[in-house]
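Hi L.,

You mentioned the student needs an example of a multi-chain input paired with its predicted structure. This one should do, with 573 residues in total across all chains.
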Amino acid sequence: MTKLLAALAAFAVLIGLWQAIILLTDVPFFILPSPLAVAETLWRQRDLLLAHGATTLIEIAAGLLLGTLLGIATAVLLASTTRLRRLVLPLVIASQAIPVFAVAPLLVMWLGYGMASKIAMACVIIFFPVTVALADGIARLEPGLADLARVMTGGVQRPGGRWRLLRHLYGPAALPALGSGLRIAAAVAPIGAVVGEWVGSAGGLGWLMLHANARAKIDLMFAALIVLAALALLLYLGVDRLMRRATPWAQSSDPATLTDS
Amino acid sequence: MKRLRALILGLACLAATPAAAADKLTVLLDWAVNPDHAPLILAKTQGYFAARGLEVELIAPSDPNDPPKLVAAGQADLAVTYQPQLVLLVDQGLPLKRVATLIDTPLNCLAVLADGPVKSIADLKGRKIGYSVAGFEDALLNTMLATAGLTNADVQLVNVNFALATSLAAGQVDAVIGAYRNFEIPEMALLGKPARIFPVEDHGVPSYDELIIAAGADKADDPRIARFVAALEDGARYTINHPDEAWAAFIAAYPELNDELNRQAWALTLPRFAASPAALDPGRFTRAASFLHQAGLIAKVSPPQTYAAFPK
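Structure written out for the whole complex:
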């Protein structure tokens, strides 16, 4: 509860600063609209913002889901054999080296102007943090535990042994690490979706921002930005809460967690 | 003789140590440098700006919608923008005024693949149309579609941002609005996908100045701007009278533009330069404003002096 109050206070300070800048510098409205004008636009254009917000949210959520599944599969691959690791790891690193902005136009050319290209963008941007965090988590399992498990269960030779190891040992041990990866993913996935919308789209918050910018409706641009930030924040908090529920045994050491445990 | 004198003056200015007391002006272009900007570039390379005691810097933006806003905010002196866009921005309360014209016909057109299924505006029904955000493309489109009894609701609009030619060539959209007939159209031909074009002013849109130059409303009467416009006229005159020498000077200044596309665009752009950049047709502003007002994009049609500084 105190954390929530602190967050609200931080927002209040931010809005106060924003208003102060306008009062002190006399900056024209088309460069920086007043908080009040933006609030008014948020309310007046709520239907428009909700409709485009829904489009962007679907893109982000689908990208998050696909990117996470892809990341988990890759991490398990990396962890399972050394030979595969040599093959796959450079590809994972390379995926991070490609600037998202550079591939966005290509993805749009290949996948069209619909949602597919935005989902792919979100996927590309979150694949790396999820994969690396989870692979790390698996690699860091205490070797003693793995040996113990093998001795106690008869190891992987028994039918289904490998799966049971994963289910009862590696999974629970690596989940907290996956959680950190997912939190980062939830924070960056909106970037992927919006970059995709900027490159080409028929809807979404990114599309709305470009449109508002061209018509000098800067208040609408800011309103879209605020809705996007709110979406990203809710998504982060949602993933954060979900991961805490899923890993009650893990003492979270993530300094960025906002919810009370 | 006059040109020789201008040249000597210009050279003298260039030779003089840090251009003694030359007034600096920053001009934000609408787009990456291309043949549309020839009069500006020639005014610079031929020393016409220098001859009038001006040191002009030309800057290409990352977003074509930014320059007028930056000028309104006092971050730059002049911006190249589109006549309907200026009307729209002034209606939104941006303190801007038109001071000169660079291109005095529309360049905008609706383009489709020459061998595609769209032979007339009516064939667009139910198809996907790409556009690049300039703020008024849906008004252009609505007016063009109306000539065939259609509305924007009969088509699907997609923002393709910078990829006008490529999205059409790749078949991601069936048509694009916002392509320039002097640039994207030769570009399409060079991509091996020749286009069929429907010029906007042939299909219900009132003729307008494609590229104009705007200054902050409070600076429109600045004497430096009058000198700038006079030098721009010299640049336009030189470009129109000596297209080959002008082309040589153009690619000497921007070697990266020495390619087939720009060579073709150059020839297509020549007849479109405003020979008298200062000349103002107030009626055009009224017609552009009425057009935007009917499309519901602006609140009211203001008198022309709201949008343009009247030349002295």
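You could point out the following to them. Chain B has two domains: 21-105+208-307, 108-202. The mean pLDDT of chain B is 92.

Best wishes,
N.
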